Amino acid sequence: MDKTDIKKIEFFKHNIDEQDIARANDVLRSIFLTTGKVVDEFETKLAAYVGAERAVGVTSCTAALHLCLLAWGIGEGDEVITTPMTFCATSNSVMHAGATPVFVDVEADTGNIDADMIEAAITEKTRAIMPVHLYGQLCDMKKIRKIADKHKLAVIEDAAHCIEGVREGVKVGQLGDAACYSFYATKNITSGEGGAISTNDPAKADLLKMLRSHGIDRSAGDRYTKLYRHWDMPILGWKYNMDNIQAALLIGQLARIEDLWKQRDAIARRYEEGFAGVKGIRLMKTVPGCKHPRHLFTILVDPKRRDEILTKLQERGIGVAVNYRAVHLLQYYRERFGYKEGDFPVAERIGDATISVPLYPKMADDEINLVIDAVSSVVR
Ligand SMILES: *Cc1c(COP(=O)(O)O)cnc(C)c1O
């Protein structure tokens, strides 16, 4: 086969449509580009969708996690329990706040933090648990909340993969003190870069709004729409505010989020059928009673062959990714904390075996079949 005959299947395609672009255009033609009414509208709609009292728009999920740690008073000398099976943003945010990430190994079937191992990692310095809903599937939040209450810890959910998730009737963010979302370029809804926090604590939401704008006590929108008054800066914050252009891109996608999820769910089910019984492929499990957001679809292969399979799939034009190699084995973490192979064996096993395949609503039928055929034959 000639190289030019190879049909390229992108790893990801976003879902920004003409209406979203028109809405962003309206903002660009208006006078007010930064945090204002359009951000307010998005925040109200996001809070309604996840069933939270309030939402706060920021520039990224990393910023959201960082600000939540600050808002819940976590910093120097404190420890935060999290998972090594995640993107490094999760544990990096703990260090941004001046605190120390403490890893707990994950469940082999889901890749989510193993709630039964959390208590053993709690010390007198522990202040919070930061669970990550890996690939979108919610962690065991009932267990995690119980542990947090017993030890008086905050729970800050990394919900970068999970705006749509429900588990045993519990929605994302419902049992946490706050949940942090990402609108990065490859996430379920996107503005290229962007993030948000949901919380049921209105006082914390107000504090988060100050913290996203340097700690200033009046927003740019207020300063613009109301008569000029001097503002003050009672606390030190960061520059993490979402702007009206980002919010305009997100409002329409949020309105379509259930439909987008259904399309991804249907593709994921076809993958599950297609890969069932293929020797050399193992799949992660969906916990019964879960609405799985299906942010990523991963397969597990023989770790000795993983990199070779990655290369061969790309040679066949199939976009792939690795989500994730265990965070504690990244160079900085090894050097700063002395982590080594064997420290979190379950996360390492997933990290060495995992391959993510394309999953997005725009995938055509023949593309889904092509991925199933190519992956099955390369693995065999
Ligand atoms: C993408 C991602 C983040 C970071 O999101 P940004 O918006 O890029 O900061 C954090 N955690 C997880 C699990 C992610 O996948």
Describe this structure in words.
The chain has 380 residues and is an alpha/beta fold. The protein folds into 2 domains: 18-255, Type I PLP-dependent aspartate aminotransferase-like (Major domain) (Aspartate Aminotransferase, domain 2, 3-Layer(aba) Sandwich), CATH 3.40.640.10; 257-379, Alpha-Beta Complex (Aspartate Aminotransferase, domain 1), CATH 3.90.1150.10. 38% of the residues lie in helices and 13% in strands. The protein has helices at residues 18-29, 37-50, 61-71, 89-96, 141-151, 202-211, 220-225, 244-255, 257-275, 306-315, 331-337, 345-353, 365-379, and strands spanning 54-58, 79-82, 100-103, 126-130, 154-158, 166-167, 170-171, 178-182, 195-199, 282-283, 290-291, 297-300, 354-357. The strands form 3 sheets. The chain has a 7-stranded mixed beta sheet with strand order 1-9-8-5-4-2-3, with helices on both faces. Strands 7-6-11 form a 3-stranded antiparallel beta sheet, with no helix packed on it. It has a 3-stranded antiparallel beta sheet with strand order 10-12-13. Helix 5 (141-151) links the parallel strand 4 and strand 5 (154-158). The longest helix is centred in the C-terminal third of the chain and has 19 residues, at 257-275. The protein is globular, with a radius of gyration of 21 Å. The chain starts with 17 loop residues before the first helix and ends with a helix. The model has no long low-confidence stretch (mean pLDDT 96). Residues 60-62, 86-87, 89-90, 132, 158, 160-161, 182, 184, 195 line the site of pyridoxal-5'-phosphate.
